[in-house]
C-alpha cells in the first residue's frame, strides 16, 4: 500500500474498539528520492527511443483483501490478471510521459527494474482517516545508448513514493476523475522529469502518523 507500517491496522482496530489505547505516534518517513539529477546538458542530448520496464517474478504479488498485504506488488485498479504486466505498463507509460521533453540526437533506452510497487487496497482506501496511506514505488533506472549498448547512467535506485488518499478525500478525487493510477503516474512522471533536469528537483520526504 503501504500504510504507515503500524498505523493503518492500529487505527482501524482503534476505531472498532479492538485496542485498549490509541495514541498517535510520530509516524514513519517516506520519500521521493534519486541520486543527483542528470545534468541538463546531458539529458537534453538524449532522445528516448524505448522504455523497458521489468517487474521480476521474484517479487511477491498479493491479492489478499486486507488493509496491508505483506507483498512487493499490490495493485487493484486493473482487473484481476497479470499484475506484473499491469505494473510494467503503468510504469512504462508514466516514465515515457516524464521523459517526453527530450529531443536530443543521442538515442537512449531506459531500462527499469521494479523493486516494489505497493499501492492501496480498496479496503484501505475506504477507511475514513487521513494521513495513513502511502503508495510505495521503488525501481532501479539505467540509461543505455540505444546504438552502442553503452551504459550512460546507472543503475540508480529511485523512489517515487507518494501520500495516498483515503475515505472522503479519495471519493472526492474519484468524482474529479482521479484514480490511484492517475495519481501514481503523475507523480512518477514528475519524478522522472525532475531527475532529467526538465523540472525543478522534487526530492523530499513526508511522514504518515503512527499508532
Describe the 3D structure.
The chain is α+β, with helices and mostly antiparallel strands. 28% of the residues lie in helices and 28% in strands. It has six helices and eight strands. The chain has helices spanning 7-16, 40-43, 83-98, 122-125, 167-175, 180-195, and strands at 28-33, 46-54, 73-74, 106-118, 134-145, 151-160, 162-163, 204-208. Strands 1, 2, 3, 4, 5, 6, 7 and 8 form an eight-stranded mixed beta sheet that branches. Helix 3 (83-98) crosses helix 6 (180-195). The longest helix is centred in the middle third of the chain and has 16 residues, at 83-98. It is globular, with a radius of gyration of 18 Å. The model is unreliable at 13-26 (pLDDT under 50).
Would you spell out the secondary-structure blueprint of this structure?
Elements: H1 7-16, E1 28-33, H2 40-43, E2 46-54, E3 73-74, H3 83-98, E4 106-118, H4 122-125, E5 134-145, E6 151-160, E7 162-163, H5 167-175, H6 180-195, E8 204-208
Parallel strand pairs: 2-4, 3-4
Antiparallel strand pairs: 1-6, 1-8, 4-5, 5-6, 5-7
Helix pairs in contact: 3-6
Order of helices and strands: HEHEEHEHEEEHHE
Task: Evaluate the radius of gyration.
Answer: 18 Å
Unreliable spans are 13-26
Total number of strands: 8
> What is the average of the pLDDT values?
88
Shape: globular
Strand proportion, as a percent range, falls in 25-35%
| Continuous helix count | 6
How would a crystallographer describe the biggest sheet?
8 strands, mixed
Helix content: 25-40%
Q: What's the end-to-end separation, in Å? A: 17 Å
Oligomer: single chain
Structural class: alpha+beta
